[in-house]
TrEMBL record:
Domain Flavodoxin-like: 13-201
Name of the protein described by the UniProt record: NAD(P)H:quinone oxidoreductase, type IV
One Pfam family it belongs to: FMN_red
NCBIfam families for this protein: flav_wrbA, PRK03767.1
Species per Swiss-Prot/TrEMBL record: Kwoniella heveanensis BCC8398
Similarity comment: family membership: Belongs to the WrbA family.
One CC-aspect GO term: membrane
GO molecular function: FMN binding; NAD(P)H dehydrogenase (quinone) activity
The organism's taxonomic lineage, starting at the top: Eukaryota, Fungi, Dikarya, Basidiomycota, Agaricomycotina
Amino acid sequence: MCCFAPLRSKPVVAVLYYSTYGHIEALADEVIKGVEASGAIVKPYFIEETLPKEVLEKMYAGSSLNPKYPLATPEALKEADGIIIGAPTRYGRLPAQVSAFFDKTGGLWASGALVGKFVTMFTSAAGQHSGHESTAITSFPFFAHHGLVYVPIAYSDPSIGNVETLQGGAPYGASTIAGSDGSKKPTENDLKVAHHQGKYFADFVGTFVRGKTVA
């Protein structure tokens, strides 16, 4: 009898994101399409809003109170082979909503449930130099404590290094420039990089998932 276990050819990729004004959601839509294009199983989730409705209304926001996907739970991370996190920059790091979600994962940390899984990120920032790279970098302690392996996209798509137009994107992952008033929308290249990141990451994770099933 052959000693090989059945191959699980489709990795499960969880896409968790928080979006205040829609910029991250626009990128998330493309990331999800990219994961699907790889043939992987994608499970999208929204990271729960922590601000009250009254505050969001003063910020001319509020769509985050009515997300189009289920709210993310720690269990969603446990069930995934790879995790893609999307959130806007707040002073060069992740916003409080994402930190609050991270704080819920203590049980996963205690059991080592995320050790060896893969993770990547995408973001948005007000300007060209606001937090397109630092948002990922300042998240590394969380990844390290959980044993998550970060997968950057480097310059694996020419659009990432484009200098002809004002755009986001970095070797760490897709991003977009929102403008200080949130008026700037993702460019065609921003969306292209987001789609590429979803597919690139899912393909990467899939390679390891299939390899692990070979006894």
